Amino acid sequence: MTRVFAYCRVSTAEQTTDNQVQEIAAAGFEVKPQRAITETISGSVAASERKGFKKLLDKLEAGDVLVVTKLDRLGRNAMDVRATVEKLTALGVRVHCLALGGVDLTSAAGKMTMGVIAAVAEFERDLLIERTQAGLSRAKSEGKLLGRPQKLTKLQAEAARIRVAKGESVASVAREFGSSRQTIMRVRDNLPYPI
Predict the structure, then answer these.
(1) Helix (H) or strand (E) holding 60
(2) Which of 13, 99, 129, 169 shows the smallest number of beta carbons within 10 Å?
(3) 48 annotated active-site
(4) Which residues does 120 contact at the CB level (< 8 Å), separation at least 6?
(5) Among 6, 71, 17, which residue's Cα sits nearest to residue 41?
(6) How far apart are CA 170 and CA 172, in angstroms?
(7) Who's near 53: CB < 8 A, 6+ residues apart?
(8) Residues 186 and 92 both lie in one domain
């Protein structure tokens, strides 16, 4: 008999996986409570690094079915989702995604769908990189300062450098100026500290 598992994930503690569990049940998948893995973890964490997903992998066997509501539940990006689906396929597990009409991602149609999604995701990523680079170039050409605002003024940085050179500890100077130890070490080592 085929066992059906559900993997439901939300990003923050303010969210709940209840809607995902209900959506899976409404789609006709009967998932026993012990086979519904839920967790709260950022989508930016790879599936293979998630505690709940690792627990799920330990339970899955060949012939099982894993149901998710959306592809982004399975990974941080298209490449991670693809790697996760390939790993599950190698285990003999079928993966169904409700957002894609319940298609089995391990089937021929599912693999084609995954290929299209991966291509679109890569295209979007490339566009985002291009737009970001163009924006940074424009900002630089307009003379805007980029990056995090500096904690120390030029005068404070010089005072901190002198105090450390006289033997004061990096930690005490950092406390005095309300900055991090790393900032004081950069000042001490004469590393670029844009002001």
Answers:
(1) none
(2) 13
(3) no
(4) 78
(5) 17
(6) 6
(7) 7, 37, 39, 47
(8) no
Residues 11, 48, 169, 180: which is the catalytic one? Answer: 11
Quote the pLDDT of residue 151. Answer: 83
How many residues are recorded in the chain?
Answer: 195
- Looking at residue 184, the DSSP 8-state letter turns out to be H
Domain range for 175: 144-195
State which amino acid sits at residue 2.
Answer: T
Q: What is the count of structural domains for the chain?
A: 2
Residues 6+ apart with CB under 8 A from 186: 192, 193
Q: Check the CA dihedral 33-34-35-40 and report its sign.
A: positive
Local confidence pLDDT in tens for the 195 residues of the chain: 789 999 999 988 899 999 999 999 999 999 999 999 999 998 888 888 999 999 999 999 999 999 999 988 888 777 788 888 889 999 999 999 998 888 888 888 888 887 887 787 778 778 888 999 999 999 889 988 787 777 888 899 899 999 998 999 999 999 999 999 999 998 888 765 444
* Radius of gyration, CA atoms only, the chain: 25
Q: What is residue 52's predicted lDDT score, i.e. its pLDDT? A: 92
Domain containing residue 184: CATH number: 1.10.10
What integer pLDDT is reported at residue 191 of this predicted model?
A: 62
37: domain CATH number is 3.40.50.1390
CB atoms within 10 A of CB 31: 19
